[in-house]
């Protein structure tokens, strides 16, 4: 009897151990399965949030902004202005012409100068006005006074040929154009980097031949890639009675004439 009890006890203990071990293995297997599933979810979520960061373009530190008010100007002059602004070394700006290119206060050169200073500051342009008075182009060539321009070592020249006096003195067109070519050639020989602008003298009232002569010189400028600033666009027509309101009795610009002339040039040199 005692022996049977002992055998039963051993069998019972073995069954308990087997059942416990089986339960523990099943629990571990279930936990592993759960972890595997969770890892799959984590991996999937990680994949979903991956983002490609765009590559930043390098910044060009030496790239300079071009002021909007210089946009009418040729590129080489824009660069000269930018350099003058940076270095503080002003550009030599020579305004050269006949008695219409007046050195008086509130004449168009003075009005232009004031606006350039107001826009660009004191250290960008050093402006010099040279007037030949009532000389013809032949007079200027004979006396070589146009070489005064080169002596100033200009970076830019605003040239008003002597159209009114040449007209009244009946200077032949071929001689006028020859004089213009000679002057410009001399200036560019001294400084190949100089920027040259040409403009007409002021219009006169009720003119017949003069407008055609001016148009011929404008065409010459175009054919030779000379920038021609036609301020006549701001004036009344030659035959218009209103023209008399802009000129003196001697066909020179009066206060109103100087203003419309200056306004055209200001709108060119200071774009809005």
UniProtKB/TrEMBL annotation:
A molecular-function term among this protein's GO annotations: hydrolase activity
InterPro entries given in the database record: SGNH_hydro_sf (IPR036514)
Lineage: Bacteria, Bacillati, Bacillota, Bacilli, Bacillales
Protein name stated in the entry: SGNH/GDSL hydrolase family protein
Keywords: Hydrolase
The organism of origin for this protein: Metabacillus rhizolycopersici
SUPFAM superfamilies in alphabetical order: SGNH hydrolase
């Amino acid at each position: 009897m005692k022996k049977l009890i002992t055998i039963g006890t051993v069998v019972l203990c073995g069954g308990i151990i087997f059942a416990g071990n089986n339960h523990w293995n099943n629990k571990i297997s279930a936990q592993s399965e759960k972890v595997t599933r969770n890892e799959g979810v984590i991996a999937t979520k990680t994949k979903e949030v991956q983002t490609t960061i765009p590559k930043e373009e390098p910044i060009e530190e030496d790239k300079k902004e071009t002021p909007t008010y210089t946009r009418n100007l040729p590129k080489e002059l824009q660069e000269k202005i930018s350099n003058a602004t940076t270095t503080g070394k002003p550009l030599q700006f020579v305004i050269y012409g006949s008695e219409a290119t007046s050195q008086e206060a509130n004449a168009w050169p003075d009005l232009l100068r004031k606006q350039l200073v107001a826009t660009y500051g004191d250290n960008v342009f050093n402006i010099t006005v040279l007037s030949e008075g009532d000389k013809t182009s032949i007079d200027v060539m004979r006396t070589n006074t146009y070489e005064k321009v080169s002596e100033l070592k200009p970076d830019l020249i605003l040239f008003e040929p002597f159209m009114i006096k040449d007209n009244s003195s009946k200077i032949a067109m071929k001689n006028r154009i020859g004089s213009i070519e000679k002057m410009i050639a001399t200036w560019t020989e001294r400084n190949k980097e100089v920027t040259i602008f040409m403009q007409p003298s002021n219009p006169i009232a009720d003119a017949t031949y003069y407008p055609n002569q001016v148009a011929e010189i404008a065409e010459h400028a175009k054919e030779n890639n000379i920038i021609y600033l036609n301020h006549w666009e701001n004036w009344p027509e030659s035959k218009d009675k209103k023209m008399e309101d802009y000129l003196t009795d001697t066909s020179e610009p009066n206060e109103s004439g100087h203003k419309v002339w200056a306004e055209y040039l200001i709108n060119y040199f200071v774009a809005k």
